[in-house]
Each structure stands twice: as C-alpha cells, then as structure tokens.
Amino acid sequence: MSPLRRRHQDEGPAREPREELRGTALRLTVHLADNDPFHHHAAYTEIVHRAHRAGLAGASVLRGIEGFGRTSRMIHTTRLLDVADDLPVLVVIVDTPERIRAFLPQLREVSPHSLATLDTVELVPPADTERPADTERSV
C-alpha cells in the first residue's frame, strides 16, 4: 500500500462512534510546521491520534504549499527545494465546545507553543442519504 494511503494502528481503540453533530460546534485549528516533532514522529500525527482516541467527531491535516510563522526568517515554499522543509500544516478538529475544550490539555502536551484558534461553526446538515436503487451516480 502506498505510504500516502496507509492506515495507522493506534495504541488503543477509539471510543464508540457518537451520533452526528448538529447545529453549532467548535472548530479547533492548530498551526504547525510539517517537521514539528513529538518524540519520534510528527506532532500533527500525534494530535490526530489523540483526537481519535478521545472520540472526537473528526480531524483532518491540511498541508500548506507556502507560509511562514512567528519565528520564521524566510517564507517556506514548495517552489524552492532549499526552503521546502518546515512547510505549514493545519490540524482541524470539529466537535462540541465541551469536548474540544476538554481536549486542549492534550494538545498543549504535544505542541505547547503552536498557534491554536477556536471558532464557532454552523454545521450544514447532510443531504438525505436515501437514494432509489436504480439511480446510478455519474462519474
């Protein structure tokens, strides 16, 4: 399997799936560099694994193609090989305000100095998942 598509084995199982979020939620966005370490792996990986074990509704890692941070002396970009390291990464987690706030101590254990933001978000309800059996999806 491609390294981009491998599944990580977690140290422990996640909590049971919860019912779908509705209404408003809290979005936690953590700003990191792709090479920020936590022990022997990337900090963003540890954050996602801990969010999964905590039973949070979902987490995504988004890799930036260009950016700089508070301590950067230059703009890091994928366009130049010599500054293609230290690229920006965002970890985005959405759940109820209570569950996100309860997760913040774990975030700070993994990444004590990263920029983290909290935003109240309105959730868009999913479309009706019931579809007639004879309707084919066009590709």
Automatic annotation (TrEMBL):
InterPro entries on file: N-reg_PII-like_a/b, N-reg_PII/ATP_PRibTrfase_C, UPF0166
Biased composition (Basic and acidic residues): 8-20
Annotated region described as Disordered, given as residue ranges: 1-20
Domain of life: Bacteria
Protein family membership: Belongs to the UPF0166 family.
Name the record gives this protein: DUF190 domain-containing protein
